[in-house]
Amino acid sequence: MKKLIAVTTLLAGTVLAGCQSAPQAPPEPTAQKVVYSGMLPCADCSGIRTTLTLYRDQYDHPTRFELREEYMSGSKVALSAIERGQWAARDKVESNTQYQIFTINPDDPGATRQYVKDAVNAIEMLDKNGDRIQSNMNYRLLKK
């Protein structure tokens, strides 16, 4: 009987020791985000209400993005789309001035879009070749 009590006590102590929780890692700092929005031109609608949210990690490195586009018919939304993925940033020198280029979906050539940060509070959409769009239309998104 004493052996049974000793074995049961030893077994219970082992089980309880295994139930102790390990120290938890401190939570990661929240990702930073920057939101740009505006109305972009559209060939067959009133405009594309666009919101681009760029997220960065705690070390200020690009992580992910969310692009919301609402195709307008007058003042009503005719169609909306949300795209999510990764993005990258790089520097580009143009006319002796250094700019940041933001590329969404950098690993998918068919879905890549580029924007140049040409002001503290604005980015401008670039064409498929990464050049500024030559137009009188507004291709800028303003920082919220």
From TrEMBL:
Tell me the first and last residues of the signal peptide.
1-17
Instruction: Note the superkingdom of the native organism.
Output: Bacteria
One Pfam short name:
NlpE
Coiled coil feature spans:
none
- What does the UniProt keyword field contain? Signal
Q: Does the keyword Signal apply?
A: yes
Name of the protein in question: Lipoprotein
The species is Alcanivorax hongdengensis A-11-3
Q: What taxonomic ancestry is recorded?
A: Bacteria, Pseudomonadati, Pseudomonadota, Gammaproteobacteria, Oceanospirillales
